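Aim 2 progress update. The chain analyzed this quarter is reproduced below.
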Amino acid sequence: MSRILVINPNSSPAVTREIDAAVAPFRHDGGPTIDVVRLEDGPPGIQSQVHVDGVVQPVLNCIRTQSADAYVIACFSDPGLHAAREITKAPVLGIAECGVFAALQRGSRLGIIAILQNSIPRHMRFLGAMGVMSRVAGDRAIGMGVAELADEEKTFERMCDTGAKLRDLDGADVLIMGCAGMARQRARLARTLGIPVVEPTQAAVASAVGGLALDW
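Predicted structure tokens:
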């Protein structure tokens, strides 16, 4: 049986549980095993470029030491994505890249719900590198760190307010959740705002499952 390894580059057990719950719908008899692991020596949350750069080598070490048929880097900054693709022949998928690709299939103008204001420049850099800036309606932050996302109702209220601004003021017709710790909010947020909402870890795992079925 094939195996997909989903790597949470932070050390938070709560975020890891959120990721595990988000990918649960892809687990079924006869399908690939989907394991979710965290970096125990990683930061509690990936909230700065320093955090992103600091987890690259631990992510690569995780890939080197854990055998899998596909890897998913479950952080919206895709730390170590391109380096990881150099050290393994297995597919390596970043949730930011996959989330953007999925959103472009659902709408004309995408909006990103970020956690903190300082996340936005990082997002702009990878969106520019992907060549999709003409399809980006906006990127707005809810002003909450990773640990604060455990407060479900506060998080949902902030995400609704931010998502509504992206939809009504910026013209977004599809939203991407800009942190793996937001996963539980996807379906409720989509119902409330009335537009598609992409949870990027689900988008990446869906791509991995499809690719393995086609014998990538």
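The beta strands are 3-8, 33-38, 70-73, 92-94, 110-114, 136-141, 174-177, 197-198. The mean pLDDT is 95. These observations will guide the mutagenesis experiments scheduled for the next reporting period.
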